[in-house]
Amino acid sequence: IEARLIEAEARLNATQGGSQADRDAMFAQLNQLRATGLTTAIPAMPTAPTTQAAAVDMLFRERAFWMWLTGHRMGDM
Length: 77
Description:
mainly alpha, 60% helix, globular
């Protein structure tokens, strides 16, 4: 799970300032994690973020929940 979150963050930061394609890819990765990360799937998020700031907020919110669920938090939280 942690590796998938790191991959999503790397994709979000793939280009300077981020493009909508990168935000969409990060969004897809998070929804894939929701579908496969637990025994029972978590419902997918309905809409992708349209700004870089919203994408970063979404990523860190998801990361906070996943890290809490696994019993640890990343140092940058």
